[in-house]
Amino acid sequence: MRKRGFEIVTKYKDKAITLPKRKTGCSAGYDMEAAERIELTPHKVTIIPTGLKAYMQQDEYLGIHIRSGFSIKQAVSLMNSQGVIDADYYNNLENEGHIMIAVINHSDEVVLVTKGMRVAQGIFYHYLTVDGDFAGDGDVRQGGMGSTGV
User: Fold this and answer.
1) How many degrees, rounded to 5, is the angle at CA 53 between CA 39 and CA 11?
2) Pick from 143, 53, 43, 58: which is nearest to 100 by CA?
3) Residue closest to 39 by CA, chosen among 92, 110, 108
4) Cα(79)–Cα(103) distance, rounded to whole angstroms?
5) pLDDT at site 134
6) Can you give the pLDDT at residue 136?
7) Is residue 150 part of a domain?
8) Could you tell me the pTM of the whole model?
9) Beta strand 60-66 pairing with 45-49
């Protein structure tokens, strides 16, 4: 039985996307690369596509974190501090579970992100729920980013 991992979304199957890897035996995060060249406009939020989707157990999520070297050298950060990819985001009808990184450029200069540049890392987490939580008995996710409401 598959437990957790990464796959390439259909739109990027033939675009030489690299599946995330941990760089050392003690690395917590799987480095994620930009799927295409993107320019980060100063003081604006830009979405960086990864060409990836992730599968995991129902009581897990994938935390998305900016890579520290990228953040410090380029004065960028994740717009929402940490991204959360829920287990049911995988293969959703709207965007197949495509993981996209929302980055804000804090500098006054355009930052160039090249295809294959490592921009974020994903860490799989297990989470707990409270007694009487019946969310697992509810609706099935229909959409992609932001589909569970504001």
Assistant:
1) 65
2) 53
3) 110
4) 5
5) 80
6) 67
7) no
8) 0.90
9) unpaired
Using alpha carbons, list the distances in angstroms from residue 2 to 5, 13, 25, 54, 68: 8, 21, 21, 12, 30
Distance from C-alpha of 19 to C-alpha of 17, rounded to nearest angstrom = 7
Q: Is the pLDDT of residue 40 over 80?
A: yes
Residue 21 DSSP one-character state: B
DSSP tag of 107: S
**Residue 24, in any domain of the structure:** no
Cα distance between the two ends of the chain: 34
Give the E-state strand segments of the chain in sequence order: 5-8, 30-33, 38-40, 45-49, 52-55, 60-66, 76-78, 83-86, 100-105, 111-113, 118-126
Range of the domain at 118: 5-13+30-127
